[in-house]
Structures are given as C-alpha cells and as structure tokens.
Amino acid sequence: MFRLHDVSYAHGGNRAGVAALSHISLDVAQGEFRWLLGPSGAGKSSLLSILSLEVQASAGMVEILGVPVMQARRSSLARLRRRIGTVWQDFRLLPDLSVFDNVALPLRLQHRAEDEIAHEVHAIMKWVGLESRLDARPLQLSGGEQQRVAIARAVIYRPALLLADEPTNALDERQAGRLMAMFHRLAELGTTIVVATHNDAIVEKYPAPAIELAHGHMVRDYR
Amino acid sequence: MARRRYHDGLALHQALPGQFLPFLVAAMSFLAALALAGGIAAHGLSQRWTHGAGAVTTVQVPGPDDPAAGSGTRVAAVQDILAHAPGIVAAHRLSDAELRGLLAPWIEQTGDASLPLPAVIEVHTAAGQDPMPPLLPRLEAIAPGVLVEHDSVWSDRLAALAASLQACALLAVLIVMTVAVCVVMAATRAGLQTRRQAIALIHSLGAMDSYISGRFASRVGLLALVGGLGGSLAALPMLLAMSHLAAPFSAMTDAQATAPMDWRDPRAWADIVPHALLWMLLALPPAAGITGWVTTQLTVRAWLRRLP
Fold it and tell me: What residue intervals traverse the membrane (chain A) (predicted)?
C-alpha cells in the first residue's frame, strides 16, 4: 500500500535545512493498521506529511498506492491525494465554512452530486454525533467537536490510505473508543491506517503493529 | 433534505472584491479606447490625405487649341489619352470660368485678362496608383511642353505624421495592456495570499491546479469584462464628440463636411463614427475579459507550483 526506502527529509531544504527524518524504510500492506509512536520532535508529523503528499521527501524512494511519488506528475499527485484521508493535529477546518461545507469539501472537489453529498454528510455527521451542528461554524465548536468534524472530513470519501495525527487528543474516552473501533472497521474493509500518537494508554488499550521514531530515525518497526 | 449553496472554501468574493478590479480595468479600457481611437483617426486621415487631395495630379497643356501631332487639338488628344489610361479615375478639364477664378488674384493685379492660358486638367488617380510617369512620353509626343504636376510633398509629410501617430497609439495601447496585466497579476496574488490556507487545504484534498486556477480566472475574467464594458461606455460620449469634431476633416466632399447634423438621429451619429471605432468599442470588453482570464490562469498556476 505504501513503501518508503531510505527516505530522508529536512525542514527548509536538503542542504541548509534541519534534518527531520533520516534513512527511513517502511513497507505497509493494504488493510494494515499501524501506530506511529515517538516523543514530540521524533519526526512523526514529518512522516505523515510525506505520506499525505504535503511535502516531498528530500531523498529516497516513496511509493504510495502504487504511485512512485518522486516521479509522478502534478495531476497524478492530485488524483492520489483524493485517495488519502488525513486528520491533522490542528484540524485545518475552514473557519468561514459551515460544518456541513467543511465535511462536504472533499466530495465537492470530486464533483459528486449535491444530493449524494448531502446524504453522505448527514450519515457521517450522525456517526460522529454532530448532526445537529451542521450549520455551525468551526469556531463555534469545542476542540473535541472540531476534531470529530476533521475526522468526518477525512473518512467521508472512504480513502485507501488514512493518516491521523493525534486524532484522539481532544476526545473523551468514549469518543476515542468509537473512533478506534471505526479505524479497525475501515482497516478490515481494506483501508491502510497510520495513526500517530504519544498516548501510551490508548496504544496499550488497542494493541496493533507500530512504527517507532526517535530523533528522526526509525527505532522499531514491529508487528 | 434542503439544498445548500455550493461552497468550496475559496471564497473568491472575499479574495477578489468586486469593486477594486473592475474600476481599474475600466480606467485601463477607457485609456485604451482613447488610444485606439487616436490610431483609427490617424489612419483615416492618412487615407484621406494619401488618396484624397494628395491623389490629384494637374496636367497643363500650353496652346490647347493648337493642332496636335496626330489629329485634333492638343488638349483633346491629351484628354483622350487620359480618359483611356488605366489607374485614372477621372480627368476634368477646368472651364475658363474655373481657371479665371483660380487666377483671379494675379489677373486682377496685372489687369490683363487676355493672357494666353494653358488648359488645366485635374486628374484623379486610383488609390495607391501613380499612372502619370509612364504616360508622360506619350503626352509629350502629342503636345510638346505639356506639364504634369503632382505635388505630393505635403501629403507625404502628413501621411508620415499619421503613421507616427498610429505608432504612438499602438505603443500607448501596449503600455495600457501591460499595466492592466500587472494590475490583474497583483490583484490575483493578493487574493491568493488572502486565501492561501484554504487553497493549501483544498490542494491537499486533491483539487487539481486547473480547478483552482479556473475558479480564480473565471472570477477575474468576469470582473475584467465588467470593467471593460464600463471603460467602453465611459469612452463612448467622448469618442462621439471627437468624431463629430473630426467629421469635417475626414469627409471626402465639401458637401459632407458642411452638412448640418441631426443630433437626435442615431444614424447620423453612426455615420460620423468610423466603423472600426465602433467595432473596437465592442471588442474592448471581451478583450479585457480574456486578458484577465489568461493572466489569472498563468499567475495562479505559477503560484501553485510552490505547493508540492
């Protein structure tokens, strides 16, 4: 599903930049769930940024869903992004759009019919328990609610690869449990999922193979 | 399920407000319209000077009633050659009255009305043709001493002046277009900066460059079209007034030049405004729209290259 070989990444460019990842090699198959572990500054967010095509690796080989990223054309990368769902740590909701419009955004960019979009949005928002807040603006929501909206937006188009950066940070235990159950269900259906966290409790509660980083290097890749 | 308004997060009404850009494009279009009008007017006057007054050649035949080398009088033989020569539209022999009227100031000064005068023939040549030099040997053969005068010095100078004015007008249009392109680029970049977070987000969600640039270009193209329309409409009264003032200079006959104009008749206005000018005013708004659309497409696509 995705393969990294000897991948390095430096913030601000390869020469003068600060190394964030060094010589990372990974091979994750379709339908796998992986924790991405490590303390703050370990390089978890950088790795997720490479996998979400937000940044280009400085060196090495990156292949995602069969597409060699370093050689791909811009249009191919845009199509590939439509198969990758990302839950960012800072949610990245657009403040001037309603909750409905934020969640509908990926489907609209895929030019889906408005009736279908409305149906999908209502279904996913019901699942995250926010169907009554569709017309609210993100800034009118609590942190936990914003996180649930961001999760809804990431999964609404059933991505082949789902990346989540600390997705349970602002959730209570019950919501976190529901989210983990959904992630495992999506993995069973064939979605590859990588969840970055430094929450040891949730990792212990939901054991799964993990990739562990420290200071930009891979410490362990255990299954 | 209630239908909702389409939102893709670009919020172009905020990124590219509807007041600033149309106003600037209108100002640019207004200036372009004036410059183009100047160019068109210069072209029209050049045509008139080159092919109107400047296209008249005078043939003087001394001893007009003397017998020609062949048969008949000298002036009749010259007129016969001129009448059948290619490139000559009309050949009019001035009557005695016309000739004496022309020479009245000198004749009155000398007080001698019995001076032997040559026959004078006004020859109107076709546009862009100069048939007289090849005819001159034939005219000389049948009427020795015949004089052909084609004083094109002033018409040539005026034509050169008109060509310079046209070049200046073209340069002015190019400068105005360059400024308009720069204005559109600056406005687009400001809009991109305003919405950079939203653009980065929809880019990361899989929006194609063509989608984002197309949305911006449609908005700017529409605003530029509106601006171009405003500029054309603002220029129209001034151009009508200038056309009215220039009408006597561009009229081909004295009758046209001095004819009174019915201000309330739209056809009268249409008659005095050159057709090229009307077409230019009609073409200006779509040209502004297309310029805005293309400039924005290129600007947005260049800006998007900074995203992976």
Answer: none
